[in-house]
Write a structure and sequence with these properties.
This protein has 107 residues and is mostly helical. Helix 1 packs antiparallel against helix 2 and helix 1 packs antiparallel against helix 4.
């Protein structure tokens, strides 16, 4: 299970960074700079990485037997900027059996 959690954590960060690049760099370049190169490159990469993210969520959920609502919540976190980072921390807390909300100062 530790391997599945590690894979999930890594892909959650990668997907989160790619989504931030898409929304904070590529989209403004497209609409304000009339240059869609960033969207053409980053959007498909984020899309495929999101599929890998969904596979990692599915694998982790199967191993820890999450309810469907939790699976959907974690799966959708990869589509909202910054939420994948928050949900990654929350998921670690759920897996470690610590249901309280972790603070960002904890390692």
């Amino acid at each position: 299970m530790n391997g599945a959690l590690t894979r999930y954590r890594v892909i959650a960060w990668i997907v989160g960074v790619m989504l931030l690049l898409l929304t904070l760099v590529a989209m403004p370049m497209k609409y304000f700079g009339d240059n869609n190169l960033g969207v053409v490159i980053i959007a498909p990469v984020h899309g495929w990485l999101y599929v890998v993210y969904l596979a990692a969520v599915g694998d982790l959920a199967r191993r820890v037997q999450w309810p469907v609502t939790r699976i959907l919540l974690v799966a959708l976190a990869g589509t909202v900027p910054f939420l994948s980072f928050v949900m990654e921390r929350r998921t670690v807390a759920w897996i470690q059996g610590n249901d309280r909300q972790p603070s960002f100062t904890e390692a």
